[in-house]
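User: For my dataset I need records formatted as: sequence, then structure tokens, nothing else. Please produce one.
Assistant:
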Amino acid sequence: MIKVLLVDDDYLALEGLCHMLQWDSFNGELSGCATDGAEAIDMVEADPPDVVIADIKMPRMNGIDLARYLYQNHRSIHIILLSGHSEFEYAQKALQYRVADYILKPVTRQKIKELEDRLKKISHELTAKNEIRRLTGSENLRDTLLTLLRRGANEEVNKLLLSDNLSKALLHDSAGTLGATLLNYLFAYQSEIIRNKSKLSGFKKEKMEEYWRLSSPGERMDYLLSLCQELMDYARSQRNEYEQPIVTRCIMTIQECFSDPEFNISQLADRTNLSLPYLSTVFKQVTGQTISSYLSQQRLLRAQELLQDISIPIKDVCTGCGYEDPHYFARSFKKQTGMTPSEYRNLYSSRDLPENLADKEETL
């Protein structure tokens, strides 16, 4: 909602503007009516409006002097002047006070429509500025962006930056403040993935200079999207370089220890000196499966191998592949193969394994 103050020494003109304007069309409300610039100033100081629509020729303080006062004390307030053809020189003088909008008298229905269009534009600008201020201080936006960057969620990062409210705010961000805030979030993420401090400082300086050289909000928005992609690509290459050896070590440790019934994934984390949540995440990203499923898979393969030797009692097969409880071993084996260990042994010894089970063995 934008608040509009009307200023004119002609009461009928004020009355006409009040009734002719379609306030809902630009989401506006009447802040008040003043009959000269001095009275308008008192009203502005008591309750600042978003827009002042004022006649140029008025007693005590005219529209030009009012424009000068607003320029010096309330630069965020938009001012629109009503002027006659004979007052064009005054209108030119008002340019220095950032008055760029005029409605020439007499005020016709067509000119009211033009005024409403201008007020719509101002309303959209103010809405965007408010959204820019809100987003610039939003901890939720920062946390969401950093979380997505850390996950390497490229599509979700793009969706966030191109979301309706954020993209509109960025495209109205003529000062570049919201974009610069997002850029600093990217630098925070950058500091997490680039360990070389001198390289970090140089990268930040280079990217900030590139950003401020861009002239339009659209170019800056494209730049942010591009930089997000660049940082995620770099993080992915760093993860691959760092995480592959971790996963290789995990696999070797599991293959060495899975036959020990006391071995579990917590012990695996202890052996690699890494936290279990981090280790689980890295393992899943590199292999596409969880550590628990991989450990169970290795134990199952070992169980199938031991069951093929009928001289080994099933209870020894159980302990030989890392299970303490024979009943749990039997349930787990059946869940993964569709048959009990005894049924598997009997089928294998008769060389009559079902085709689908053979396929399962090949894929495990």
